[in-house]
Design goal:
3 helical TM bundles of succinate and fumarate reductases, single chain, 2 domains
Amino acid sequence: MSRFKPDLKTYTRPIPAGWWWQTPFLLRYMLREWSSLFVVAYALVLLSGVYSLSQGEASYDAWRGVIASPPLVVFHLIALLVLVYHSYTWFKVMPKTTPHIPIDPKVITYGGIAVVAFISVAAVAIVYWVMS
């Protein structure tokens, strides 16, 4: 007997095939995880468009012709539905995973709006100052 194996046999629970189909929570979880594959596929489609744009106008027009084909239009519609589901479930799960912050959420929200407003005004002022 090997020195790395225990002398006693341990119990290993059998896992049936398709175990996640039987629990609605796990089914939703697996669908959310699989929807990330559509995110990757759509990102690759967009990345190929940026690459064809870098190759010139003819290449970009050819790419636009390819993505206007009926199979890719159907892919875009399916990807839209899957990405909406992915986004919905992502925003639904995020509050459950963030740590508790001992600050009133209104302070964070109003503070964030104030910071964005200040940065926007500053950016417009800088652009105006540089252009004049």
